[in-house]
Design a protein that fits this description.
Family: Belongs to the DegT/DnrJ/EryC1 family.
Region (Disordered): 1-21
EC number: 2.6.1.-
InterPro entries: DegT/StrS_aminotransferase, PyrdxlP-dep_Trfase, PyrdxlP-dep_Trfase_major, PyrdxlP-dep_Trfase_small
Structural class: alpha/beta
GO molecular function, one term: transaminase activity
Helix content: 25-40%
Number of helices: 13
CATH class of the largest domain: Alpha Beta
Shape: globular
Length: 401
């Protein structure tokens, strides 16, 4: 392990024209290794490798960071969504309005929780669900709306909240990407009944595998989620739903967080605010270089910040006319990219039975054809950002540098 951690980081040392990966955190791990190693040794000594004291310590630190009354550590952001929906009261057959432009787990979590996803289009100038589209999607079976905070900003929570109140809907947040984002001082995931965080390795706060958390200020939701993550147990027995006059047994599953993931996350949490600031610097450098180039439709810095919003750049997403051509050019130049997302959710084969057709949600469909994410992570150097920008400019202008 020591020799691997002391070796040069892929692509970021040596000064050559090595490949620029879409994501790389090897330098961060070398810097934090003494603390990570110390935490892992504590786990080994404790002998509890899942749902143990390190997870409890991480939950407390996340409560402190987010301001949440409750943080419930689980094994992935996806399971956190399923548990949140169930704990917030989703019933079999209930409809949940979700944006058509987001990662597929947003909608599949609704299915796994027993509900039916109903897709709504996104804003004209942004990637959050449109409050007007949410209002149009409400039916007699709608019980919840789940806005998603994507890439570098929050969804329009005030607009979605107005629609939800008008129709008596519960708001739950897919805030998987939104660690550090706040609205008027309230952390993402605490603007409705509850939210989630993903600690997938590429996230702003990433583990070394899958991990996630549910966060809420609601005592009953938190208690139910804690039971659901551990086979319905409260202590060593199957438990009843709290707050229900005729309780039924909770049929939970195995969604517990591993303590080794918590050990890594606790160490990385000490660098989170510095990493967020670094991402902001790099994203602005991208914006300054790419804004106004022919074929560039949008860069993150173009989007207006809502009053009271604290943004965090998780992904630097740009919209370009010839997205697929640019991706191929950058790949040939040794630069990694990621397409977010190649197909909107309402046109995914697994949701074909819901009857949506091409053209139904035009803004989401258009963004899926034009959006691409460029490398962005705290270990990335300004020189590498400039190299990416040089290649983007070369492709868009047809020139050579």
């Amino acid at each position: 392990m020591k020799s691997a951690l002391s070796s040069p980081a892929t692509g970021e040392r040596g000064g050559g024209r090595s490949r620029i990966p879409f994501f790389d955190q090897s330098e961060s791990f070398r810097r934090l290794w003494p603390e990570i190693e110390g935490n892992c040794v504590r786990v080994m000594g404790d002998g509890k490798f899942s749902h143990g004291s390190m997870v409890a310590e991480f939950e407390r630190e996340m409560e402190r960071y987010t301001g949440a009354r409750h943080v419930v550590g689980v094994n992935s952001g996806t399971d956190a969504l399923v548990l949140l929906l169930r704990a917030a009261g989703l019933r079999p057959g209930d409809e949940v309005i979700v944006p058509a432009y987001t990662f597929v787990a947003t909608a599949t979590a609704v299915v796994h929780a027993g509900g039916v996803p109903v897709f709504a289009d996104i804003e004209d100038h942004g990637y959050g669900v449109s409050p007007d589209a949410v209002a149009d999607a409400v039916t007699a079976r709608t019980r919840m709306v789940m806005p998603v905070h994507l890439f570098d900003r929050l969804a329009d929570m005030e607009g979605v909240g107005r629609v939800a109140r008008a129709h008596g809907l519960t708001v739950v947040e897919d805030s998987a990407e939104a660690i550090g984002m706040r609205l008027h001082g309230t952390h993402a995931g605490l603007l409705g009944a509850g939210g989630v965080l993903s600690f997938f390795p590429a996230k702003t706060l990433g583990a070394v595998g899958d991990a996630g958390a549910l966060l809420t200020d609601d005592d009953a939701i938190a208690e139910t989620a804690r039971m659901l993550r551990h086979h319905g147990r409260s202590g060593h027995t199957l438990a009843a739903f709290p707050g229900i006059s005729n309780p039924t047994v909770v049929t939970g599953g195995n969604s517990k967080m591993d303590d080794l993931q918590a050990a890594v996350l606790l160490a990385k949490l000490t660098r989170l605010d510095a990493d967020i600031r670094r991402r902001t610097v790099l994203s602005r450098r991208y914006d300054d270089r790419l804004r106004g180039l022919p074929g560039v439709r949008a860069v993150p810095g173009d989007a207006a910040t809502r009053s009271g919003e604290e943004r965090v750049v998780y992904v630097h997403l740009v919209e370009v006319d010839d997205r697929d051509g640019l991706v191929a050019h950058l790949d040939a130049a040794g630069i990694g990219t990621e397409v977010y997302y190649p197909r909107p959710l309402h046109l995914q084969p697994c949701f074909a039975h819901l009857g949506y057709r091409p053209g139904a949600l035009p803004r989401a469909e258009a963004v899926c054809r034009s959006a691409v994410a460029l490398p962005l992570y705290a270990d990335l150097s300004e020189e590498r950002v400039d190299r990416v920008c040089d290649e983007v400019e070369r492709f868009l202008t047809g020139g050579s540098r």
